[in-house]
From TrEMBL, chain B:
GO terms for cellular component: cytoplasm. It catalyses: N(2)-formyl-N(1)-(5-phospho-beta-D-ribosyl)glycinamide + L-glutamine + ATP + H2O = 2-formamido-N(1)-(5-O-phospho-beta-D-ribosyl)acetamidine + L-glutamate + ADP + phosphate + H(+). Keywords: ATP-binding, Cytoplasm, Ligase, Nucleotide-binding, Purine biosynthesis. The lineage of its organism: Bacteria, Bacillati, Cyanobacteriota, Cyanophyceae, Synechococcales. This is Phosphoribosylformylglycinamidine synthase subunit PurS. The gene is purS. Pfam families: PurS. Pathway: Purine metabolism; IMP biosynthesis via de novo pathway; 5-amino-1-(5-phospho-D-ribosyl)imidazole from N(2)-formyl-N(1)-(5-phospho-D-ribosyl)glycinamide: step 1/2. It comes from Prochlorococcus marinus str. SB.
Amino acid sequence: MDNFTVGVVVFPGSNCDRDVSWALEGCLDIRTKYLWHESSDLSDVDAIVLPGGFSYGDYLRCGAIARFSPLINALDEFVKSGKRVLGICNGFQILTESGFLPGALTANKNLNFICDDVELDIISSKGGWFNNGGEKQTIKLPIAHGEGRYHCDSDTLKKLVDNELIALRYKNNPNGSSFDIAGITNENGNVLGLMPHPERACDETIGGTDGLFTLKSLILK
Amino acid sequence: MDQFAVKVFVRLRPSVLDPAGEATKSASIKLGAEGIKSLRIGKMIEVKIEGNGENEVREKINLLCDRLFANTVIEDYEYSLEKL
């Protein structure tokens, strides 16, 4: 795994890119490379993180403009090849807007920007992003979002449930998400989108270590 | 080439909760407005666009609405078109 490199995408308005890089490099000794959104050359990265923030100022809808960047256009082939893509917060919004994951994320039910630690039940470990094989099936991660209310129609929800695509559910739904959904994967399991921030929970002294497993699983084949 | 003025209205689908609309409805009632049964907030996008006739322009606007202006998972759209 010496040369394994995670690409961390930087859009205008991304603000968690450096946190993600710090968590991967500093806490997990995984090499990272920043990828400017106008780049479409993904040949020297083995996995990709779409970090949180406010890409393109969240204009029109969160993630709506980012979807048209050259990098996101190149992502289709990357995903089809089975390589892993993790979308955190704004990254999750971009993944739904661009059709890599079903559903949409919209304004929190109470209209507040919620910045808090939340407890999450691990529902599925599809893709190996979460450890639900052992005793610990609940994790605590920080959330920080104004538009994190997951919405999908009933047919999509049934598909998510039937195919075990729901990765995380809030224990105490903070934003009004359908079915308490906090994170989902695609059918292959190589794409995960979640509103909570695993990169902010990678060090015991600043918020716990429940995010480490998910970031570490970027290096899974 | 003909030029058209297009007004696109993007609305949350009826089944999708509109918290901003609910908050504005609540404020409207506090203002003393009576009889408000529902209030929902959408977006209006004005576009001036050229094309060879109305059909070609409608095709372009449909593409823009389906792929960019609206997220059809949660939003509906309609538009009006006026030849300039």
